Amino acid sequence: MKEEKVQNVGPSGIEIVYQRFGDTAAPPVFLIMGAGAQMIAWPDGFCMELVSRGLQVIRFDSRDAGLSTHFTGAPDFSAAMAGDFSTVPYTLSDIAADTVGLMDTLGFDAAHLVGASMGGMIAQTIAIEYPAQVRSLTSIMSTTGNQSVGQPDYSVLSALGAPPDNREGYIEWRVQSLKAIGATAYAFDEEAARDIAGRSWDRDHDPLAMLRQAVAVLKSGDRTELLKTITAPTLVIHGKSDKMIDVSGGIATAEAIPNAKLVLFDGMGHGFPDPLWGEMADLIAEHVRQAELVTS
Length: 296
Hints:
- This protein is an alpha/beta fold.
- The chain is built from eleven helices and eight strands.
- Helix 3 (92-105) crosses helix 4 and helix 6 crosses helix 7 (190-203).
């Protein structure tokens, strides 16, 4: 599938690489992926499920991911955890501005946003800071920034260690990571996971990029009160077995955003199990359809 690049995007003037699927006259849906993940982490099959339901899909590499602009420096994660953000190069608001800049560059006055994990946090931030440019919001396996909800299962994550600095080691680490945090009720597609991990390494393997994104989340803080100001129709999706962002994060998100619809899936972890693609696409497509009726 063809990848395209645009330059001088948003206030930071960065480069963003993106892909577009579907009818260009259909409602535009921007897919925003999470920390350490590239746009190809959105499964091709899931993208096609959305397209088959009459949506135009745009997925892209956020800053410090894939083939979009990478920043430099090694933030002090321990200091950021303690509240010292002096080494943090940017925030979720900066990534939100990049995304709105991409929308502007591609000629969209407003769009439907679907964000997963950190991508959900970015989508929430856009809905807070750029309400006129958000037709609808879908926040998947994400949270509010309140440290009392959505906490990861550190016992699972600590066992994984740091990613190796070679291709085969990274692929194995990524596969084991996805398996550890994934669904409990659905079979793990190891072949697909290895394919995406290998392609991700080949496109980019900046070892500090995920750290810069992670500390951006910390610096951005708790959005709970700001979430109460969101006016966009909102759908919140979360897995009850999520070990990366506990389901309490999704519940808190839905509780904070006025009139948000919450859908929880049994056995879904931090990922997109194939058997749920159709049902999730149905939810998103209907959510978009209802929002289009309101804004048309």
